[in-house]
Amino acid sequence: MNGFPAALARLTEQFARLPGIGTKTAQRLAFHVMSLSQEEAREFADAILGAKQTIHTCPVCQNMTDRELCPICDDPKRDQSLICVVAEPKDVIAMERAREFSGVYHVLHGVISPLNHMGPDDIRIRELLKRVAAGGVREIIMATNPDTEGEATAMYISRLLRPMEVRVTRLAYGIPMGSQLEYADDITLMRALQGRRDMD
User: Fold this and answer.
1) Measured distance CA(140)–CA(118) in Å, rounded
2) What angle do CA 196, 199, 200 make, to 5 degrees?
3) 51 — alpha (psi -120 to 50), left (phi > 0) or beta?
4) What is the pLDDT of residue 21?
5) Is the separation of the CB atoms in 30 and 8 below 8 Å?
6) What are the structural domains, with CATH classification, of the chain?
7) Which end of the chain is more exposed for a tag (fewer CB within 10 A), N or C?
């Protein structure tokens, strides 16, 4: 970028690599970082490095955690026989906001998307199948987004689970087709959970 010091241009480029951040927003963020004190900038950098060093995926549900098991898997009050399958860790936060679900989760870390070169082996389906094969699971709720890729992923997983004799349900369509789970309000999510249906 002409007129930008090289270090500021690099910082802007790094912000622009974040999802949903365009060039102008990246520039604003870079200039904001430059306005921070040395101590504030260090705290910001330390927060990024600290998160990268301490956060990992839960070995059971694949959600993000800084403990051996995530707090949900480790909670004896949660129904371990009821697994809600979501695409991303942020979807767990959305589902928990509804305060309607008492089971546990499985995070796929993506959906099947040929356009984005994401196949079944690129997301955490294998780990889900191992959980179900270990026994004790009575129902899987497919809570991927109600868009083409989310539907395709839900159908693919439900076919894999069919021989395992576990009930597979899908969230009811209180959530509009093509929308994102994380943006659904609490009441819509609660109704979607209550009205879930069996997958054929």
Assistant:
1) 22
2) 150
3) alpha
4) 94
5) yes
6) 6-54 (1.10.8.420), 64-198 (3.40.1360.10)
7) C
Hey, what are 98's tokens?
């509804």
- Return d(Cα 145, Cα 154) in angstroms, integer: 9
User: Cβ atoms within 10 A of the Cβ of 23, count?
Assistant: 12
Please tell me the distance from the alpha carbon of residue 20 to that of residue 196, in angstroms, as a whole number: 31
Length of the chain: 200
Query: Side chain identity at 127, as an amino acid letter?
Result: E
86 pLDDT higher than 60: yes
Q: Does the pTM exceed 0.85?
A: no
Q: Residue holding tokens 């199948």?
A: 129
Q: What tokens does 84 get?
A: 């809600």
Residue 99: per-residue pLDDT: 84
Q: Among the listed ranges 25-39, 135-149, 162-176, which one has the minimum average pLDDT value? A: 162-176
Q: For residues 185 and 142, which has the higher predicted lDDT (pLDDT)?
A: 142
